[in-house]
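Subgroup meeting minutes
Present: P.N., E.W., G.H.
Scribe: E.W.

1. P.N. recapped why we're keeping a running log of single-chain structure predictions: easier to compare across weeks, and new members can see raw inputs and outputs side by side.
2. G.H. added today's entry (216 aa).
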Amino acid sequence: MKDYRTLALKELLAERVTSLLILLAVILSTMMTAVIGQSAGVLSAMRQQQAIALGGDRYATFVQMDKARLSALQEDDRLSFVGTYVMLGTAELNPSLTLGINEYHEDVAAVYPSLSRVKEGRLPKAPMEIALPEDVLQSLGFEGGLGDNLSLSLSKSLRHGLEISSYDYQAGFVLVGILESSYLNYTGGSVSGIAGQGTAEALLPESYFYYNVDIR
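Output recorded in log:
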């Protein structure tokens, strides 16, 4: 009889230990799942921030759009954001690096945060105002400061099917902002400067005035 009691007590104790181990395993599994889920969320957020830093807070950009096509996109309810900018042209800084000047009609700091960090001065607001990265000013050999005039030789391209034409011109700007140098786009061979709204209309012929449209 004692043997049965002893065996029963051992079985009950073993079941209790097993139950505790199962409960502990469930708790640890839940904790690991939560940690993995949180880590996945952090990694996803990091990837998103990296993508924004490299290419801006946008899903895609339509280029060489006229007002009619722009209006169609602005009226599309499926899009949560439609922003526009006009490229004034490009200037070659050296054989491997090109400067592009854009006039943004959107909150450039929100859409392109890495391109619009101001080190000195401010972002352009008026026509013919410009802000350039510090390293670009050094490449241009510019020795002036904020409020000084700066001249650039620019080229604006226009694609007609397979053919490409260009409009080359010289333009004078007033430097109102010095941007922090951003080397993210160096691998692609380009850096960007920002011009004030109204500059493109003042400088570009009508046939070369078109919009680039960011959407998301």
